[in-house]
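User: Study the chain.
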Amino acid sequence: QVQLVESGGGLVQPGGSLRLSCVVSGGFFNAYSMAWYRQAPGEQRKLVAGIPSGGREMYADSVKGRFTISRDDAKNTAYLQMNNLKPEDTAVYYCNADLVGTPYWGKGTLVTVSS
């Protein structure tokens, strides 16, 4: 049984910052590829950033230079640092962990960027 719990979402003004956290339990965290997705109302869930086990970070073009994905294997936690937030970033953000094609999802945390 693998469980992912996201936290850190909230209401932010444009240009502000948030740091999302994803705590993984019930698995070998170091072996997982970790990623963050987001889904805005009426839109498909999209990949925002990924950090494979032992691999390079990957970012969607829309967040390059603003978001940073990282992982702390000792804490079984993945992070998404979001800077210079824009209204277009408003969405539910989901943590994803994948091991050889078996994906696990968190329940999501809402990020709202608005004045």
Notes: The first strand starts at residue 3 and ends at 7. Residues 1 and 54 are 23 Å apart (CA to CA).
